[in-house]
Amino acid sequence: MLKIQKPYDFKTELLEVHKKDRRDKSLTPREDEFAFPEEVRIVLLDNSDVILTAARDFTDYLFTSMGISGFITEKQKPGEPAIEISLSKNLGDFNAYMGYRITVKKDGITIEGYDERGVAQALYYLEDLMNLRKAPFLTKGVIQRKSLFTYRNTQSPLGMFAYTDEALALIAHMGMDSISVWIKDPYTTKRGEYIDLRLLSERAAKYGIDVYIELTAAHSKHPDEPDAEEFYEELYGKLFEVCPKLKGIALVGEANQFKSRDPRVGKTPWWENFVDNIPTGKTSPGWWPCCDYPEWVALIQKVVTKYNPDVDLIFCTYNWGFAPEEDRVKLIERLPKGISLLATWDMFHQFKLGNSVQNVADYSLSFVGPGEYFASEAIAAKKRGIKLYSISMTAGRTWDFGVVPYEPMGQQWIKRYEKVQQAQREWGLTGLLENHHYGFHPSIICELEKCAFFTPVKPLIESLRDLLVRDFGEEDAVLAEQAMEKFSEAITYYPPSNEEQYGAFRIGPSYPLWSGNYQELPQHGKLPDRAHAMFGNDIYFGAYRQDFGGRNSLSGVRIMDEIPALQTMERLMLEGIALLESSKAPNDALLRMCNLAKFMQHTIRTGIHVKQHFILKQQLSIAGNQAAAAELLNQMEELLLAERENVLATIPIVQVDSRLGWEPSMEYTTDEYGLRWKLRQLDYELEYALADYRKANALTAE
User: Once rounded to an integer, what is the mean pLDDT over residues 690-694?
Assistant: First the structure.
C-alpha cells in the first residue's frame, strides 16, 4: 500500500538522483561478465569539468545503488581493476556528438569519448546496464553508441526555472543536453523573479548542458528603421554581457511581438486589434508567417553573432501552422542561412473522429505524427540547408493530461519515437524540444526515449520490456506491458481539441461544472491561484468553451462524436487498470503506475461529465415547456451527483502521490485542496443553483 504524501514530497524524491540499494546480492557474475571489485579506481587520463562531474556522479552511483566504493585519480596502477577514461578521435562511425566506445575486459573497463559529453553518457550508460542487471556486473565486449540529435532541450522537473544540481543531473542522465529559460530581461524570469544567468550557465556546463533563452519583450523596431540595429544591440547585447556562455536564443512570435509591416496582418500585441471593442479581423504578426520576418531574423542574427559566432538562433513557426503552406514555405525559402528552424511535430493535423473532423489543437499523443504542417516545413528546410528542430513532446508528457508526471502509453510512445527516427533519416531532423513549460518528470518513458535516440537502437519493444522487468519483476512486467497496450489504444480515442486541452483535461477532476454564467471576470469560477504560480489559472477556461477556429467541425456537431470516443477511452483505461490490479504481489512502482492510470481515468470521466453537462445546459435554454425543463434539471442533478462521486474517488489517489495534480506553471490544481474546492462548488450547484432553476420553472402565468 502506498503511503500518504504531503504536498511537494515528490520534489524531495527527485533530490535522489541514484536510487538506493538497487543491488540484488543473491546474484553472481557469469563467466562472460566483469564484476566490479569492492573498491575500484576511476582513472581520468583526460579530464575536464564535464568529465570530472560525470566521474563523481558515477562514484555516487556505485556507492548508493551498488554498495561499491570508487575513487577518482589520474594515476594508473598496473594489475589493479580500473575504469580508464580518455578522449579519442579514433572511434570510426562513432566520431560524432556524444559518441563513445566502452570496452569491458576481464580486468577492467576503458571508456573513450569522442567529446566530454560522450564520456559522461558512457558512464550514465554503465549505470543503466547495471540497473537492468541489478548488480555491478557488465558483459565483456565492446559497446559503441552516439546521439541521434545535437539538441535535446527540456525544462526542470522541479518547477519553473528550478535548475538545482539534482535537476541538471537528472536531465543529463536522460541524454538531454540543453535547458530553456524564459526571461523578461537579463536578470528577470518570466515569472518575475531574479535569475543569475551566468551562474546557471556555468553550473549547467559542468553537466554538459547548454542554456537557451526565450525573451518575452516587445521587439518593437522594424528592421527598416534607421535605429533598429542599435535597438537590438541594446536588447540582446546585454544578454551576452551578463551570460557569455549563452548557447542559444529562441525567437517565438507570441513572445517577441514583432511589429511587422506585412499588409496581411494587424497590430501587436494581439489585443490592439480592436476598434471600439470590435475585432478588426486581422491576425497579430505573432500568429502569421509575415513577409518581413526574414529581414528581422537576419538583423538579430547579425547582432548576436558579434558576441558568439556559434550562437544557435532558433526561429520557431509554432504560432502559424494553420496558415497556407505556400505562405509558410515562402517564408522559409527567404530565411537567412546559419539559423535553426523549429517546427511543431503534431499540431494542426486534421483527422476524422466518427462523423466529424478533429484538429490537434495543442501537443498530443493521440496522433503519433508527423503532421502535414511539420512535413511541409521539414522538406523546405532540407531544401534550403537550414538546421531542422521539432517541438516533438517526446519526454513523456503532452497537453492531453496537464497535471500528470507522464503518460504511461509505452507502445504509443514507441510509434512516435520511430516516426521521429524516420524524420531524422529522411529530412535531417537534428534537434528536439522535448517539452513545453510543463517540464519532464523522470520516468520509464524518458528512459525508453533515451534508448530510442542513441544509436545503434535495438527494437524498442524489447527495451520497454527490459525496463518493465527492472521496475516490476518478470511476472508483473507482463501485466504492465499488457496494461500499457490498453492505455496506448485508449489515447487514440482522445479528441485533442481546445475544449479538452484548455478544459477538464488541463487541470483534472477539480475542473468545475457551472450551471449558470458566473464568469463575469476571467478568474471567476476558477480554482483560486496558488500565490507563487507563474500562469496559475490563466491558462485554462473556467467553463466549457466552444472552439470555432475553423480547423475542426463545429463544436455542437463533434461533441456527439467526442463523448462516445471518451467513453471508449475510459473503458480501455479501466481494462488496463484491471490488469495491473490483478498482480498478486505488486511492488510500490507498480502501485504508483496503477494509481497514475486511475487519476487519468477519473480525469476522463470529468471530461465526459463536462460535455454532458454542457449539452444539458443548452437543451435547458430552449426546453420549450416546463415538463421538459423539469426532466432536464433532474438529469443535471444526477450528473452533478455522479461527478461528486468521481471527485470523492480521486481524493485518495492524489493523497498517495504528491506529483499528481501539479504542473510547474500552474502549481497545484487537483491536489486534495483542489478536489475539496470542487466538492464545495458542486454542493453550491446542487443546493442553490438547481433550486433557483426549479423555482423559476415552477412559475405559472395563471
Answer: 96
Kindly report the length of the chain.
Answer: 702
Query: Over the stretch 166-216, which tens digit does the pLDDT of each residue have?
Result: 999 999 999 999 999 999 999 999 989 999 999 999 999 999 999 999 999
Can you tell me whether residue 284 is helix, strand or coil?
A: coil
| Main-chain dihedrals φ then ψ at residue 500, nearest 5 degrees | -85, -55
The DSSP output letter for 528 is P
C-alpha cell at 269: 500585441
Kindly list the structural domains of the chain, giving each domain's residue range(s) and its CATH number in brackets, ordered by start. Answer: 16-145 (3.30.379.10), 151-443 (3.20.20), 490-698 (no CATH)
Q: Which residue has the cell 480515442?
A: 493
- The closest alpha carbon to 304, from 383, 367, 402, 212, belongs to 212
Cα–Cα distance measured from residue 133 to residue 354, given in angstroms and rounded to the nearest whole number: 47
Give exposure, 524-537, as e/b (b: 16+ Cβ within 10 Å): ebbbeebeebbbbb
Q: Show the beta-strand stretches assigned E in 45-117.
A: 69-73, 82-87, 100-105, 108-113
User: In the structure grid, which three cell numbers stand for residue 348, read together?
Assistant: 494542426
Global pTM reads 0.96
* Vertex 435 angle, CA 309 and 314, to 5°: 25
Three-state SS annotation for 578-603: HHHHCCCCCCHHHHHHHHHHHHHHHH
Helices (H) and strands (E) in the chain, counts: 21, 24
Sole residue written with cell 466538492: 679
- Residue 686 contacts residue 640 (beta carbons within 8 Å): yes
Amino acid identity, residue 396? Answer: G
